[in-house]
Every structure is written in structure tokens, then in C-alpha cells.
Amino acid sequence: MATANTKILKVAIVGAGPGGLAAAILLSRLPFVELSVFEQARELREVGAGISINQNTWRLLQVLGAADSLEEFSKRGDGSVIDVEQRNGLTGELLGRKYQSVDPNTPARSRIERYKLQQALLSRVSPDLIQLRKRLRTIDDSGDDTFLEFEDSSRTGPFHLVVGADGLRSAVRQHAFPDHKIAYTGKVAYRVLIPQEKVAHIPNIPQGSCFWHTPSTHVYTNPLDNGLFEIATRATESEEHGNKVSWGQVVPKSQVVKHYQEYCDTIREVIDAPDEWLEFAMFGGPKLETVISGGRIVLIGDASHPLSGAFGSGAAFAFEDAFTLSSALEYTWNRKLSVAKALEIFDSIRGPHYEKLFAVLDTMAANAKTAAISAKDDSNHRVEQTVSKNWKANETAWIYEHNIVQVWREWVTLNDLKELDLNAGKPTAVKEGSREAFSLPAVPIAA
């Protein structure tokens, strides 16, 4: 167990996805951390299609030192470039359009292949840190020290801190919170990347990101910068089907096209273009009241809050978690406070943010139900209502613009002011909440 007298903090990260790699980059910069990363896969590879790089993601890629590797995909909006469109999938009618940021200093949202993001992160991690083929079986934290036990019968440790970055089906979460269960949502995601030539003959395809909506589903289309075309959608499948589908299973087009016959001609042709797709059964679960356990286990990313792919920003959430964790650990270490205190700080900052995310999901579900009740016989009206309430109002912009670096700075300021108040009376030279009163202590902007 780590105490104020511990000279080296031994940290284990379980999982080498975006969150685990981000945590590895940040924690390896802390001179007092001895780090190990364990990944169950035989090789590090990304399964899927594209991934959105929003403002919050770009900001943290800069902190991670990985932004330079993706600079070719970084765009500065001038207000004239369409960011995303919302269309009626039944008719093709344009329902809403958002333009890219006009701030020349802020990268606009981009869409890239998942493996390119993974490679950018891996370029900042020493290969010696990552051990592959390490599927976690259990955690032994019954004594003062914590050990990891794997399916290959190996046992390693001791560790002062275990970071669960092992995704939706987290073994770390199962150990720390055995009563928390995830379940099949009844939805299956279909994703694919194909050459743009395969859809070039199809009329009325927007030259940017577009969501095509029906009352109960949507299809996402997007031409990527490297000559590929991305298609992603979800469909309702039986519980038995969901239980059988592995993550990223190849399926023929016949499995997919049957779900989208009600769509307009443009989308039916788009869906028919790929010869095969990747299929993903979607699982989710309730919000955890806390993501820390015993003062030495913490969950980040999908392991901490299984949102079932909502908001298309899982990597960004994981980056924000990793940044907050590393910042809290350095803050407490420099003040000779415990790891448990660092985890409490982490939880106090990230918990309320996830509460807001789950509240948005509840609102979206309520909006969809209201639209279905109020317009049972008018599918077009139901589509318009759902898009208007969930998309046009732009009520989710705060998610993608969230500045966790500034959130951390403000927390440090307020906490230091409270300490001054307790120890020496109220300060008069610094106004509470001032952003000029300190510098960010945790992580340099570039490696």
C-alpha cells in the first residue's frame, strides 16, 4: 500500500486501448512512477472504422504529444465548411446543418481511421512497457499489497495502484464492483470502410459527415481524407443474436441490408455497396456511483462508465480520465498525500461529468418516446421532432468542447485557496477562480 513515505509508486495499467495508452503516456512522465501495462490481445490492432477527433480530443492529443502524427487530419475552420448534416433518411431532406468552428486556433472536428489514432498513441509509449497476451483473471488485494493474476497462471506485483482501462467488459471492474452488470442493449452496430469509388456513382451523397434518420434508427456516412468512405449504423437484433456476436465479426451484406429497406434510394444504394461488414453487439450498463475502490483501484474509459458507444467520443472521455488521473497523482505526490486521496480527487472531478452524460442519454430516450407517441402515424414528423430535440438545439456541444485542462486548473486554484483559507486566513491578492494564479502542474503540453 502506498504511503506518504513511498519512494516509488508502482502502477499497473490493465488494457492498452486508447485510454490505457493515454494513461501510459502521461504516467510514464511522472518520475516517481514505475509502470507496467498488460493487454490481453496477441497483438495491438484496432477493429472498427473511423473515429471522431473533436476539439476536446485534439486538445488532449497535444498534451499527449501525439497530435503531430495526426497533423495532416487537423483542420482549422473558417466558418464556411460544413461540419455535419442531419437528414431525413426516409426522404433525403436536409433537416439541419452545422458549420465548423471559426476559431483559427482550434482544430475543427475531423474523422480518421481508428488504427491511425492507435499508431499515434503507440509512438509515444515505450514498447517495453506493454506485455501482450495477459488476460486478467483476478486481482488479489486482500493484504497490504496488490497482485494481478492472469489466465496464463502468472502472477505479478506488488502494485500500489491498478488502473482498469480494459474496456466495456472490464475484468478490473468485475473484481472491484461485482454487483455491477452490463447487458446487451438489443442493438448491433454495423461499420465498414470502403473505397470512395464504390459510392461515387450514387447521387446526393454529402461530401462531409451526415446522419440519415428514421424514427428508430440512423445511418452515418462520411468520406475520409484518404480515399475511403465510412458507413456506420445500428440495428435492433434479438437477445440471442447479441449474445453470439463477437466484437468486430465479419458478416455478409445480406445481414445488413434487410434492416434499411425503408430508407431513401441514396442510402439503400450506399448500404448495398460493401460486400461485407463488421458487426458489433452493443452492451451497456448503469452509471457507477464511484469508479475507485480500496484506495488502490481506479477505472477509466469504457471500463468506468459503459455508455454503449453513445456520443461517439469514447476515446476522448478516456483521454480526459487519464489526464485527470495523472494530474491528481502528481498533485498529491508533491504534497505527500496518499494515492487514495488522488483517487478521491479524480472521482470528484470526473463523476459529475459522467452524471451529465447519462442525463443527456435519459433526455434523448424521453424525446424519442415523446415523438413516437405524438406522431404515431407520421414517420416524417417523428424524424423531424427527434432531430430537432436531440440535434438541432446543439445541446450536446459542451461534450465535445469540454476543456479538462482548464477544469483541472480551476480545481487546483480553488483547492489551494481553500488551503490558504484554512491555514492563513482568506487571501486578498488572488480572486477566487482566477486562471492567472498558477500554472498547470501536471503534464507538459508537448513531450
From TrEMBL:
- UniProt-listed PANTHER family: FAD-BINDING DOMAIN-CONTAINING PROTEIN-RELATED, HYDROXYLASE, PUTATIVE (AFU_ORTHOLOGUE AFUA_3G01460)-RELATED
Q: Which SUPFAM superfamilies match?
A: FAD-linked reductases, C-terminal domain, FAD/NAD(P)-binding domain
**GO terms, biological process:** secondary metabolite biosynthetic process
- Which Pfam families does the UniProt record give? FAD_binding_3
User: What keywords tag this UniProt record?
Assistant: FAD, Flavoprotein, Oxidoreductase
Q: Which organism is it from?
A: Saitozyma podzolica
The name this protein carries in UniProt is FAD-binding domain-containing protein
Please tell me whether the keyword Oxidoreductase is annotated for this protein: yes
**Domain FAD-binding: from-to ranges:** 10-330
Q: Could you name the domain of life of the organism this protein comes from? A: Eukaryota
GO molecular function annotation: FAD binding; oxidoreductase activity
